[in-house]
Each structure stands twice: as structure tokens, then as C-alpha cells.
């Protein structure tokens, strides 16, 4: 699935004309400073784009049953996984540390290997029919452990988003709660299948999502620069 997803993305982008080609191989007799800068930038974008297309996807991994992948989640900002538990619906959104604290990936920030990811952050929402709010858990997920950072209530309308509203109360500091309560909350989400068994799949899922986003970024930036160049010529 992952190989197919990345290959489809690469073909989709490759099938379109590369936005940097027009300038990089232009035949204008007079080259302005702006033209030269654009050409250098577009050539650099092209080189890095080609490097990205050579990235090897992780092996195919299925999510632990009974979780299923949310349709379209690789191209959106909503939950990655969902499942039902009795009359409850459980959704999981995921991000890695670099998405929260830019540049916090250490010396290997530019590494392409998805195996370098060893910590994920989960937004787990538990909702019930007829309830206006969902129970929200912010968790840290590791290859061999899961820890809860906070527990709060939030409107269902916000459950599909992993962005926190700074004005909303996110509950007490979890570590300040009595150990008995903390253990009960851990048992609560573990009973619903939220644990370290999710790590291999979510790490691979994030790799594919990051790859798609990176391909899309190269295309959109190159297109913008190329269109800007065209607008200057026509003005």
C-alpha cells in the first residue's frame, strides 16, 4: 500500500510539466538578475525533487485490528485511524515531535529514514452519540510505551482537528493527579486499543504523508516561481 501510494504520487507529479523547466531551459537573449535568481532556485528545486522521488517507502503495514484508516487522511489534517467501541467512536490523529517543535530532530533533521522517528504524539478522541463533547487524550507514543499528557473535554466539532484552542481548559496537569486516577485513565484507553501496538503503523503512515507533502511543496513552490516569472514578462 505504501509503495503504491508513493509511486502514485510520484507519477502524478511527474506527469505534469515540471514548473522549473521553462526558466531553467529558457532561450531568452536578455537575462535579468531576477531571471538568474529564479533559474538557480528552480534548478535547485528540481535537483531536490528528484532526490525525493528516489526515497524508499517503508514496508506495507496494516493498522492493528479493529482500527481502520480514515479515507483521505493522507491528504488532509484530520484523524488517521478510527474504530468503534460499543456505542463509542474513537479517532486518532498523529504527529511527530518535529511537527510540534521545528528543528527538534537533532543532528539528523534531514534524514529520510522513517525508522529515525522514535516518538509520536497522539490526539485520541472518544465520542458518544447524543453528546456535544468528546473526551480528548493527548498522548506520547513510543515503540514500547504510551504515556498520557493531558485529558480534557472539547466540542465534537473540534474533534477532527489536532490543533488545540489555547483558550480552552485542557484539564489538570496529568502528573499531578493521584496515581490511582492516572492508572485508571491508562486502562481506559488501553481497553479501547490505544497502545504501543499502534506505533509501527503510525510511523509508516507519517512517512508516506510527509513524502506526499514534500512532493506537493516542491510542485507548488516551483509553480509559484514560474508563474511569477511569466507575470513579469507579460507586464
Word description of this protein:
The protein is α+β, with helices and mostly antiparallel strands and 235 residues long. The longest helix has 36 residues. The radius of gyration is 22 Å and the shape is elongated.
Give the SSE layout.
Elements lengths: L1 H14 L5 H4 L8 H21 L14 E2 L11 E5 L2 E9 H4 L19 E8 L5 E10 L2 E11 L23 H13 L7 H36 L1
Shape: elongated
Rg over CA atoms: 22 Å
> Would you report the number of β strands?
6
Largest sheet: 6 strands, antiparallel
Order of helices and strands: HHHEEEHEEEHH
Helicity range: 25-40%
Number of helices: 6
What keywords describe this structure?
single chain, 39% helix, 235 residues, 6 helices, alpha+beta, elongated, disordered N terminus, 6-stranded antiparallel sheet
Structure at a glance:
The chain has six helices and six strands. With 235 residues, it is of the alpha+beta class.
Amino acid at each position: 500500500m505504501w509503495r503504491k501510494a508513493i509511486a502514485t504520487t510520484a507519477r502524478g507529479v511527474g506527469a505534469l510539466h515540471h514548473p522549473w523547466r521553462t526558466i531553467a531551459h529558457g532561450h531568452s537573449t536578455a537575462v535579468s538578475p531576477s531571471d538568474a535568481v529564479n533559474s538557480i532556485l528552480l534548478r535547485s528545486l528540481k535537483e531536490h525533487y528528484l532526490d525525493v522521488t528516489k526515497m524508499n517507502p517503508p514496508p506495507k503495514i496494516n493498522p492493528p485490528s479493529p482500527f481502520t484508516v480514515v479515507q483521505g487522511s493522507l491528504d488532509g489534517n484530520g484523524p488517521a485511524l478510527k474504530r468503534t467501541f460499543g456505542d463509542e467512536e474513537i479517532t486518532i490523529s498523529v504527529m511527530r515531535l518535529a511537527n510540534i517543535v521545528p528543528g527538534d530532530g537533532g543532528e539528523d533533521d534531514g534524514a529520510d529514514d522513517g525508522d529515525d522517528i522514535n516518538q509520536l504524539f497522539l490526539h485520541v478522541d472518544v465520542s458518544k452519540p447524543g453528546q456535544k463533547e468528546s473526551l480528548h487524550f493527548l498522548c506520547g507514543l513510543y515503540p514500547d510505551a504510551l504515556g498520557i499528557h493531558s485529558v480534557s473535554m472539547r466540542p465534537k466539532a473540534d474533534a477532527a482537528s489536532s490543533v488545540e484552542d489555547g483558550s480552552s481548559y485542557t484539564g489538570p496537569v496529568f502528573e499531578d493527579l493521584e496515581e490511582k486516577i492516572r492508572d485508571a485513565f491508562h486502562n481506559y484507553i488501553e481497553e479501547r486499543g490505544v497502545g504501543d501496538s499502534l506505533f509501527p503503523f503510525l510511523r509508516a503512515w507519517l512517512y508516506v504523508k510527509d513524502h506526499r507533502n514534500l512532493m506537493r511543496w516542491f510542485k507548488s513552490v516551483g509553480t509559484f516561481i514560474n508563474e511569477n516569472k511569466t507575470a513579469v514578462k507579460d507586464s
